[in-house]
Design a protein that fits this description.
- By secondary structure, the chain is mostly helical.
- It is 73% helix and 2% strand.
- The strands form three sheets. Strands 2-1-3 form a three-stranded mixed β-sheet. A three-stranded mixed β-sheet has the order 5-4-6. Strands 8-7-9 form a three-stranded mixed β-sheet.
- Helix 34 (988-1005) packs antiparallel against helix 36 (1024-1057), helix 36 runs antiparallel to helix 41 (1160-1192) and helix 41 (1160-1192) packs antiparallel against helix 42.
- The chain is globular.
- The two termini are 45 Å apart.
- The model is unreliable at 1-6, 310-328, 632-647, 943-951 and 1236-1252 (pLDDT under 50).
Length: 1252
């Protein structure tokens, strides 16, 4: 029990150490590559299955939906284990934080349970399909299917949630986890004392779940077998049963075999530890990789949908149109526009293929960019071989970019047309890539020959000048050969426009010539043969010489090892390229191959080598691999006695904040406050306006809506913190590390998303002006959603990687030298190497700006060309109006974003740079809605008509509710903020209070914004789904609020009646369980009363006589009898009121009994702690009772009921912050401490940012 030698429980933060595989240094790369290959198979196979099922409507059947859930479960299980395993194999890092360990263990156990429950649900589905085929669709309705899926996941999550909830608070005395990954059992082995309850529950849960799922599956297959035997003459039924059940049975058996192997290997001590660990992860790495393959091959619908991606029907050609491109013998005149004959893709498959192409292009960009960046930045890598690798990576970038960007544009928009100049540029780039790859590989082979065969003379021969000459020669030969090839095409008359290929090439363009081109053909063939043969001879000569040298020195094992290490990667890359080229040639020789498959094979040479080459060199080349490993290895510097004043990995940081004087603090506070309020008002107003006004439901405005949302998020994280710290002395401006990371993430997310959103808006303007007739087809709702997801997704991934590289660093400083937290300020706190942070940050910034500026310039160049070639004044006027706003926003964002970057180069302007960084947040966010509002005709017209058409009463009601809603948001947000940030408000009462405030905000947000929109626009409409969601969340939040009031009453009872046991009872886990119980209580008591309304048929008129979708008002529109629904709804409503009311009443009765035994002073103190809560409870239950009475008494008019209900909705959330701030002294003091502090003249602590 080496883990328990010290019985003193460990304190947080706990860091475990995984006892992973014992791997030799030379085997780590191989195992990493195998793990990476396995994870890529898991990702691609399961992602492809999910994508095909989601995209193909014909696959929206119960069995396929369950397969989709199984694939999601496999993704979770594979990701939980394989990422950590690859990190260990690549870097040797075994340490894992406590939180990450718990998350990994929870994910692994959830995967193991969910896969069984999902397979049980699939077995039940197969039983119905085979044994009850006529009733199948009546039983497996969408709601029943949804219930089955939710039940499978809820059972898994509940079982594992309880398992881990029992571990909360268990003291741990060890840190070594004897496994490849973290699990519940491996963590409990480190406990200081036995854990019988955990063991018993874990064993019972595992046995019950496995047995239950096995019984369901066994019962289903027994029934299916019985049905097949009973109908033995029905061969079609037996065939259907076999086809539908075979894949499910194979998947279940594979999972059970994997689980059994784990159990058996643990029983034999003679099995090696490595083999035990390998068998322990079999059930996580095999099923996720095999399951999608099994379902893809066996399930007929999935297999057919997969084949659709490549199979196309070619219509037979008649003898009279065999030269359709040459029907017109007259040569075409410039400007010529070609049309590419790309893949024939169904509408629902376009997004899947677009995502795959985008993923491939991102791999090409990031992998080759990373290789180039590391080689350029690390001086130790400035060697001939690495310089040649850098040239190869640049060539791969050119080849991938030339083909993939145009392919993604076609898959996203269906655009096949390409201008003559762009076609020539693409063809030139593709051919140059093909030639340059071979010449660079020949130069690399010659370099390897010198390194192995002439090691003593290597540096004398491969001097910097000789290396430069080799690189230049490789590119010049490629450019000259391809330049002459295209020079021969100049002046060749063309009589056709249809290019029968995915991309433009020299041969495909010459097919359109009006007459034969023998000179071009002869030169092209001779050049291709000469270049390929010459490069092959150079490479063959080099490797023959290397092989001869190795045989000659057969006793020198070090030489053979060096030769293998230096030549293996080069040889693999060359073979991959030649295989790709050979595949292209061979597929063109077989007419039976489908056109889609031919086209796919023809682009393999442009998509596989650029993505694979950097991975091969990064794994095999020792210098590159070592430099890569440096990026992830964490070296904790030894402590220096002179540095004892500095905190290592401190979780409390010192923020510099705004540097204001006594005279400028109030103007700065007022300016920032009003600016923030203005930003919130105009951006929220713009979002509400676009969502509520139907005339603005256009792609342009929906895409623009992302910009206000981004502005709101970006400023809400930074500006309130700046406002808070204005009145705080510099020595007391502290911020937690996690809050600082969140602020940095949001800040960079704001800047990145601003670029990506404006890029997709530029694309929208391009389609609207350049392709107006196809605008509605291209910019469909699906395309708008896809563009929005891409804009936010790319920003999220890039910023997440940026911050994850910073979070991994150790910190030996704690002073943030900025007004707010950002990535640069965070990684400057570290004493570790931040080389990778600088490389990635610079690469990320350059790529973002180049992509942003390049895409916008390209878009506006296209728009300008269309406007100049068109004589339509209406088109030019429309282009100017629609593009001027976007261009203004982009220029404003670009200037404000570039200003801090430029000032960063001038150290004397440090303060000005920080001010410019704040202005980047607030200036565009303030002006964006104004620019769009002034320039957009639809927005101006709506505002003008809306404000003039409102009556006085509607305006007054609108302003009353607007002010009330703003007060509710501000008051409850203030309570939440105070409870989370003030250390003196860390008691359980304030934890419950800020949860109550959160419920109040959500509760009013469900109804009031829609009411305000109706008052402003006179359009009181809501979708059916929106109505049901509003109805559910309104009631659920109301019940949850009363449940939280009940929990608060219990808290007051414990504080007054059991003060000595209060802190031991009301621990953090107990608080979290009570709050979770309140939310679950609200959901359980709401669902039965609202769910029946979803299944009803409504006859109309579709007018809900209420301020929102109230259940009784909605049920009055039902065609049939709603007696049962009314009784059910009323029963659960009264039950929720009675349960919470009785519990609150019981708590206060017990408190009253305790008060009767106290003296006067103690009674007053106890009453003071209960007064605010008692007031809120009285108002809540009193107003609720009045509303229910008004609904049950027939004399009340409908208008009075609506007014009463609206006041009930607003009253409690409006009064809660007032009551608690007036009646609670601690909360009043916390507000005063935040807003009424003055900066001291002598700081308590100097801010040191450098070592002495």
């Amino acid at each position: 029990m080496e883990n328990l030698t010290k019985l003193t429980p460990l304190k947080q933060p706990i860091v475990f150490e995984l006892e992973s595989f014992e791997v030799a240094q030379d085997q780590g790369s191989v195992m990493f590559f195998l793990a990476l290959l396995n994870y890529m198979v898991v990702l691609l196979a399961n992602g492809l299955v999910i994508g095909i099922i989601v995209a193909d409507r014909a696959l929206h059947r119960p069995m396929n939906v369950l397969i989709c859930n199984l694939a999601a479960c496999d993704l979770m299980g594979g990701t939980a284990v394989l990422i950590r395993l690859m990190m260990y194999l690549a870097t040797g890092q075994k340490r894992i934080a406590y939180g990450e360990a718990i998350l990994q263990a929870f994910s692994v156990h959830t995967y193991g349970v969910a896969i069984q429950t999902i397979l049980a649900a699939m077995a039940y589905d197969r039983y119905l399909a085979v044994c009850e085929p006529l009733r199948y669709h009546a039983i497996m309705t969408p709601s029943r299917l949804l219930f089955s899926c939710v039940l499978a996941w809820v059972v898994a999550l509940l079982c594992i949630g309880v398992l881990f909830a029992l571990n909360v608070g268990t003291p741990l005395c060890g840190t070594i986890i004897k496994h490849v990954y973290c699990s519940n059992r491996s963590i409990l082995y480190l406990a200081c004392a036995p854990t019988p309850i955990n063991d018993i529950y874990g064993l019972c849960m595992t046995w019950s779940l496995s047995t239950g799922c096995f019984l369901v599956i066994a019962f289903s297959y027994i029934k299916i077998l019985h049905a097949c035997i009973k109908n033995s003459k029905d061969i079609s039924m037996q065939s259907k049963a076999f086809q539908t059940c075979a894949s499910h049975l194979v998947v279940y058996v594979i999972y059970q075999i994997g689980s059994t192997i784990i159990i058996l290997t643990q029983r034999f001590n003679s099995v090696s530890p490595n083999l035990k660990k390998f068998c322990g992860i079999l059930f996580i790495i095999i099923p996720p990789a095999v399951n999608p393959v099994i379902y893809g091959l066996v399930t007929k619908e999935l297999r057919s949908s997969l084949l659709k991606l490549f199979k196309t029907k070619v219509t037979p050609r008649t003898p009279f149109i065999w030269m359709e491109n040459l029907t017109k013998r007259m040569p075409l005149k410039q400007p010529i526009v070609f049309e590419l004959e790309s893949f024939e893709v169904a509408d629902d498959q376009g997004p899947v293929l677009f995502f795959l192409a985008l993923l491939n292009y991102m791999v090409v960009l990031l992998a080759n960019g990373l290789v180039m960046g590391i080689i350029v930045a690390d001086r130790a890598l400035h060697r001939p071989m690495n310089v040649l690798i850098c040239n190869l990576a640049a060539c791969d970038l050119m080849g991938g970019t030339a083909v993939l960007i145009r392919l993604m544009m076609y898959l996203a928009t269906g655009q096949k047309r390409i201008a003559y100049g762009e076609a020539i540029l693409q063809a030139f780039s593709v051919h140059t890539y093909g030639a340059a790859v071979q010449t660079i590989m020949a130069a690399m082979a010659y370099d390897r020959y010198l390194a192995v065969c002439e090691p003593l003379r290597y540096h004398a021969i491969m001097t910097p000048s000789r290396l430069l000459f080799s690189c230049v020669l490789a590119w010049v030969v490629a450019l000259l050969c391809i330049g002459v090839l295209f020079a021969l095409n100049v002046g060749t008359p063309l009589c056709g426009t249809i290019i029968k290929h995915i991309y433009c090439s020299n041969r495909s363009i010459l097919y359109l010539a009006c007459e034969p081109t023998p000179i071009n053909d002869i030169y092209g063939l001779c050049m291709t043969w000469s270049l390929s043969t010459g490069c092959f001879l150079v490479i063959a000569f080099s490797y023959i010489k290397i092989l001869h040298a190795c045989i000659k020195n057969s006793k020198d094992s070090s030489m053979r090892s060096k030769a293998f290490q230096t030549c293996a990667s080069h040889l693999v890359v060359y073979v991959i390229y030649q295989i790709g080229s050979t595949t292209v040639i061979l597929t063109q020789r077989f007419t039976s191959v489908s056109p889609n498959l031919k086209k796919f094979f023809s682009i393999l040479i442009n998509i596989i080598p650029p993505a694979v080459n950097p991975v091969i060199y990064g794994l095999v080349t020792k210098e590159l691999r070592s430099s890569l490993l440096k990026l992830f290895k964490i070296k904790v510097p030894p402590r220096n006695p002179s540095m004892e004043n500095y905190t290592y990995n401190s979780y409390t940081l010192h923020l510099e904040g705004l540097q204001v004087t006594k005279d400028t603090m109030y103007p700065a506070f007022i300016f920032l406050l009003f600016t923030y309020l203005f930003i919130m008002f105009v951006n929220v107003g713009m979002v509400v306006l676009v969502c509520s006004e139907r005339t603005l439901h256009q792609p342009m405005y929906f895409l623009f809506c992302n910009l206000p949302i981004n502005d709101i998020l970006g400023n809400s994280i930074m500006v309130p913190r700046l406002l808070t710290y204005i009145f705080v002395p510099p020595s007391e401006r502290f911020i937690s590390y996690y809050e600082c990371v969140v602020q940095a993430f949001t800040t960079h997310m704001f800047g990145t998303t601003s670029h990506t959103i404006l890029m997709i808006m530029a694309f929208d303007r391009y389609v609207a002006i350049c392709v107006p007739l196809r605008y509605a087809t291209i910019m469909s709702n699906k395309m708008v959603i896809n563009l929005t997801a891409v804009a936010w997704g790319i920003a999220f991934i890039c910023v997440a990687v940026l911050l994850s590289l910073t979070v991994r660093l150790n910190r030996c400083r704690d002073v943030i030298e900025n007004f707010y937290c950002d990535n640069a300020s965070l990684f400057k706190l570290s004493c570790d190497s931040i080389f990778i942070n600088n490389v990635y940050g610079l690469t990320f910034t350059v790529v973002l700006f180049v992509a942003s500026i390049g895409s916008v310039l390209l878009t506006y160049a296209k728009i300008t060309a269309v406007c100049m070639s068109s004589k339509s004044k209406a088109l030019n006027s429309k282009a100017l109006k629609t593009c001027s706003t976007h261009l203004c926003l982009y220029v404003l964002m670009l200037i404000s974003g570039l200003l801090p970057i430029v000032l960063h180069r001038f150290p004397q302007y440090t303060h000005e740079r920080k001010i410019a960084a704040i202005l980047f947040h607030i200036v565009p966010s303030s002006l964006n809605p104004i620019i769009y509002g002034l320039q957009s005709t639809e927005v101006r017209k709506f505002l003008s008509n809306g404000l003039t058409s409102l009556g006085e009463t509607r305006i007054m009601v609108f302003y009353i509710f607007l002010v009330a809603y703003i007060f509710i948001l501000v008051g409850n947000s203030m309570i939440i903020y105070m409870s989370l940030t003030d250390p003196k408000l860390s008691s359980p009462m304030y934890f419950f209070l800020h949860n109550l405030s959160m419920v109040d905000i959500l509760y009013t947000t469900v109804t009031i914004p829609n009411m305000l929109s109706g008052l402003l626009t006179k359009t009181n409409t809501i979708s059916v789904h929106g109505c049901f969601l509003q109805m559910y969340f309104f009631i659920q939040l109301a019940v949850t609020g009363r449940a939280i009031l009940t929990v608060m009453a219990y808290d007051r009872y414990m504080a007054i009646c059991n003060p000595l046991r209060y802190t031991s009872v009301m621990t953090k886990p107990v608080r979290c369980l009570l709050i979770a119980g309140a939310w679950v209580f609200g959901a359980l008591f709401t669902l039965p009363g609202t769910a029946p309304s979803w299944q009803q048929t409504y006859c109309g008129p579709n007018v809900v006589r209420h301020g929102w979708c109230d259940p009784s008002s909605v049920r009055s529109l039902v065609c049939g009898d709603t007696y049962f629904e009314n009784i059910l709804s009323l029963s659960f409503a009264l039950l929720a009121l009675l349960v919470t009311g009785v519990l609150i009443l019981t708590s206060y009765i017990l408190i009253g009994l305790s008060l009767s035994k106290m003296n006067t002073a103690e009674r007053l103190k106890a009453f003071g702690t209960c007064a605010a809560h008692l007031t809120v409870v009285s108002i809540s239950y009193g107003s609720a009772s009045f509303v229910y009475i008004s609904y049950r008494v027939g004399n009340f008019p409908a208008e009075v009921r609506i007014v009463v209900s609206v006041l009930y909705t607003v009253l409690t959330p409006f009064l809660n912050p007032v009551i608690y701030s007036l009646r609670n002294k601690e909360l009043r003091d916390a507000i005063k401490r935040t807003f009424c502090r003055r900066p001291s003249l002598t700081p308590k602590r100097p801010i040191n940012t450098v070592y002495p």
